[in-house]
Amino acid sequence: MKKIFLCCAAGMSTSMLVERMKQSAASRNIEVEITAVPVSDFDQIVSDADVILLGPQVKFQLQSLASAAAPHGVPVAAIDMMHYGSMQGDKVLDHALSLLPDAQ
């Protein structure tokens, strides 16, 4: 099962988006584990992650976090602000899945 982590400032603001992503995955029979975590936990989760998405409030850390994740082979990307703001879990899930190395 693929593990997707959403990092934000405190790990709370992405919780609703995580639920929307889980609903979208379930409706499409996609088995993924999606978790919201504070960006301060990045070092603890990077080795367990298959993909990490950053909330808009921590997007400024994209370059440094992507560099830190590179040795683990974990892609890191920012969540589109429009998708985040409108809680489009399906679009964010599609983005995460497209970053997986074995994405179709």
UniProtKB/TrEMBL annotation:
InterPro entries assigned to the protein according to its UniProt record, in alphabetical order: PTS_EIIB-like_sf (IPR036095), PTS_EIIB_2/3 (IPR003501), PTS_EIIB_3 (IPR013012), PTS_sugar-specific_EIIB (IPR051819)
Superkingdom field: Bacteria
Chain ranges of the PTS EIIB type-3 domain: 1-104
Residue numbers of Phosphocysteine PTMs: C8
Signal peptide: none
Transmembrane regions listed in the UniProt entry: none
Listed Gene3D superfamilies: 3.40.50.2300
Pfam families assigned: PTS_IIB
A molecular function GO annotation: protein-N(PI)-phosphohistidine-sugar phosphotransferase activity
GO terms (BP aspect): phosphoenolpyruvate-dependent sugar phosphotransferase system
Record keywords: Kinase, Phosphoprotein, Phosphotransferase system, Sugar transport, Transferase, Transport
Protein name: PTS sugar transporter subunit IIB
Species in which this protein is naturally found: Dryocola boscaweniae
